[in-house]
Amino acid sequence: MIPVFSLRWFRIPCDTSFLIALVSNPIKCLDKVESEIGKLRFKVPSFVLDELNSVERKSGPKKSMIANTAIRISKLKFEIMDIGKSKNVDNDILNYVTRNRKFAVATLDGILLNRLKTVDVTTITLSKNKMIIANRYFEG
After folding, report:
1. Are residues 131 and 33 in contact, defined by beta-carbon separation less than 8 angstroms?
2. Is the Cβ–Cβ distance between 77 and 96 less than 8 Å?
């Protein structure tokens, strides 16, 4: 028997690229996804907020506004995970989730997606305004 997939018990840290995409193009199919696999519990590592703050300060007006909106939405809608400072956000996300298998990762970063897949971490990404879940190699 094939186990039914569920992210119900998984916390899902989001990286910067995913949060910016959520602000730029909200997911239209989120309700359908949640009805099929359970409520998604997105979380934002504190160092991702630091990276968004840096993008807001160093970018042009349009990207600064998107980063600011991503920060505000993150603080209002998602739980902030205070897991310290980071010199390399992608490496720290990878290290954090491989230590605790109760995590999936939401990202649009192709290099990070490949690195997460090689260590069998469940990934959530977006393509053409649809959510894609990969590496479902666990029992829910």
Report:
1. yes
2. no
* Each residue's pLDDT tens digit, 37-85: 667 788 999 999 999 999 999 999 999 999 999 999 999 989 999 988 8
Structural domain count, the chain: 1
Question: How many residues would you count in the chain?
Answer: 140
Q: What is the pLDDT of residues 85-103, one digit of tens each?
A: 888 999 999 999 998 877 8
Residue 15: inside a domain, yes or no?
Answer: yes
Structure-token pair, residue 43? 């979380």
Task: Say if 4 falls within a structural domain.
Answer: no
- Report helix, strand or coil for 81: strand
Q: What is the domain-level CATH number for residue 44?
A: 3.40.50.1010
Structural tokens at position 128: 């053409």
Q: Which one-letter amino acid corresponds to residue 13?
A: P
Predicted TM-score (pTM) above 0.85:
no
